[in-house]
Amino acid sequence: MPEVLEVESYRRLANRVVGSTITRGWADSLLAKKLHSSSSWARSVKNLTVTAASRRGKLLLLETSGPTLGVRFGMTGVLLLDGEVGIEGLFYGPHEYQSKWLRGGLEFDDGRKLLVHDPRRLARFEINPDLGELGPDALTLTRKEFDQLIRVDRGEGPAIKARLLDQSRVAGVGNLLGDEMLFRAGIDPRTPSGTLSAEERDRLFKAFRQTMKLLQRRGGSHLGDHMDARFPGGLCPIDGGTMLLSTIGGRTTYWCSVHQR
Description:
By secondary structure, the protein is an alpha+beta fold. The protein folds into two domains: 4-132, MutM-like, N-terminal (N-terminal domain of MutM-like DNA repair proteins), CATH 3.20.190; 135-256, Helicase, Ruva Protein, domain 3.
């Protein structure tokens, strides 16, 4: 699914329409599910000028001369500008683009179209989305913010994988990025957050930053070092250990039985 790296690529694509005025907006009933109706999207966006394209985690934000427009991409949402895609493919999504999967978008006074392509229909449009529910952005996370992410006030806390996926703690980490960070840090994803040692916290912060930088350079969250072994019976590319499989934080999780302890 689109994680912070994919949505950052969408933001860069959307940045090309800054300065353009919206002449038409449209959305199917599910893309407009968080709005009053599909027609309310059309009414709200008409004649707005896009002034900036920004992002918080997985949420794309189009600043305008009126309200802020938000796009959440769900599991398979991809942003297109006149047929050019923000990313070539998603690990869990399609690797082809069909007109029947276009769910909504914006048309501009210069003739361009910014469209949302989403086979599974989990993407959503929003108007003035609430950013208060989101933690700091994963791409710019500081050590102080990381320490707050890991912090547990009482008890052992949730599994560290679940904590990394908590968007109210850090916005943008999804399933693949979370697994890659823990793979690189050599930490079992089931480890309770509150039991991590100082040395493990240091390793995880380093892995967090490395994962973001390296996978952004490679081109997406699906290009981590653990991905070739992400299947039942897979063998760790580091030490040959059997890759284990479980559901943590509601998501399918893979980790190495040898070096992730």
